[in-house]
Specification:
8-stranded antiparallel barrel
């Protein structure tokens, strides 16, 4: 995406107070641990004339990870996992958007580069355009949801511990779920 709005494109800034980046991973192979990142920002470029020309860029503050358990969060911030001192941001930059339509409820795919801990891998987000509306202050808002599953080991997140009963402490597959609300940038 370019820094300026292209003809036929509108820029939408992600509203961090109304957006959520959450994840789910198995613990001890029997339960799911849920977490989220509180620090999220970015923008969405929507090409209304050619929706396939739309794109998204997202930055997430790695240190904002929150699983509601401070000792676990500190471990996730450490060198064993996110290494937030060396890699303070997780990013996603789209490459392709397929099947996007401005019809509320429409499903589409976003393919792009996800960078975690300095490792970049292509991932595909299964997304839904939830719709748009005008807020009480006259701003235009749009909402999207998306999800994908990644193998954390592909991003260098390899720490684990074997269990006496067999299996591992931390699951390798991480489900990522997004609920994004964006505000149309003023022209």
């Amino acid at each position: 995406m370019t820094e300026q709005t292209l003809k036929g494109q509108t820029t939408w800034n992600i509203d961090p107070t109304h957006s959520q980046v959450e994840f789910v991973v198995k613990h001890m192979m029997i339960t799911k641990v849920h977490g989220r990142f509180a620090d999220v920002g970015g923008r969405i470029e929507v090409d209304e004339a050619d929706p396939s020309g739309s794109g998204v860029e997202v930055e997430i503050g790695a240190a904002s990870i929150d699983t509601r358990q401070e000792d676990r969060d500190a471990h996730l911030r450490s060198e064993d996992f996110l290494s937030v001192e060396e890699h303070p941001k997780l990013t996603f930059r789209s490459r392709r958007v397929e099947g996007f339509s401005l019809e509320p409820g429409s499903e589409f795919r976003v393919e792009g580069d996800l960078t975690i801990r300095g490792v970049t891998k292509e991932v595909t987000l299964d997304a839904v355009y939830e719709g748009s509306g005008t807020d009480p202050w006259g701003g235009k808002r749009a909402a999207f949801s998306a999800e994908t599953t990644v193998d954390r080991r592909e991003f260098g997140l390899e720490w684990n511990q074997a269990l006496e009963t067999g299996g591992i402490l931390v699951g390798n597959d991480v489900k990522i779920q997004l609920e994004v609300q964006a505000v149309k940038a003023e022209e």
